[in-house]
Amino acid sequence: MSEQYVRRRRRRMSEINVVPYIDVMLVLLVIFMVTAPLMNLGVEIELPTGDAQPMDDQGDPLMVTVTRSGDFYLDTGDQPELIDGQTLVATVSAIAARNPELQVLVGGDRETSYQHIYEAMVYLQQAGVASVGLVGDPDEE
After folding, report:
1. How, if at all, do strands 62-66 and 72-75 pair?
2. Which CA distances in Å does 117 have to 55, 71, 134?
3. Is residue 4 part of a domain?
4. CA–CA distance from 68 to each of 5, 47, 114 (Å)?
5. What 3-state class would DSSP assign to 3?
6. Is the full-model pTM beyond 0.70?
7. What are the phi and psi torsion angles at 66 (to 5°)?
8. Per the domain annotation, does 41 fall within a domain?
């Protein structure tokens, strides 16, 4: 007796199964939702509050942060770095020479002495910065 092989032909599916892609997307979403609040990209300070209007968006401003102890941090877009007054003047004046309409913001902890904020503004004036703003948080209602 001869053996016959029964051959079944499978129909090809023309649909894509997207369920695994959705699963991967949801896992990535959860990972990003958990890790995003943990990323602290600045110097930890408590800004003062006030009822001021937000400034118009004129590009990315340069940020100088003053801590409670009077240390200066310069944030040029990467990681804020600890900097002394003379280096602050030299660095900001070099940046201001390339961009005369540079806007610089000074943020200080609410417990910072006014003297430290004033020193930062004097250093920025010596660097030739024409526009200096102060950073604060809006009042909570």
Report:
1. antiparallel
2. 20, 10, 9
3. no
4. 85, 11, 10
5. coil
6. no
7. -115, 125
8. no
Name, in order, each residue with C-beta under 8 angstroms of 94's C-beta and a sequence gap of 6 or more. Answer: none
Q: Is residue 31 in a domain? A: no
Whole-angstrom distance, CA of residue 36 vs CA of residue 33: 6
Tokens 């100088």: give the residue. 64
**CB of 127 within 8 A of CB of 83?**
no
Domain count within the chain: 1
Instruction: Give the span between the Cα atoms of 92 and 86, in whole angstroms.
Output: 10
Residue with tokens 């943990």: 38
Mean pLDDT of 125-135: 86
State the sign of the Cα–Cα–Cα–Cα dihedral 40, 44, 49, 53.
Answer: negative
What is the three-class DSSP state of 50?
Answer: strand
Minimum mean pLDDT range among 12-16, 37-41, 55-59, 60-64: 55-59
CATH of the domain at 67: 3.30.420.270
Domain that holds residue 125: 49-138
Phi, psi dihedral angles at 133 (to 5 degrees): -120, 160
In a domain, 44, yes or no: no
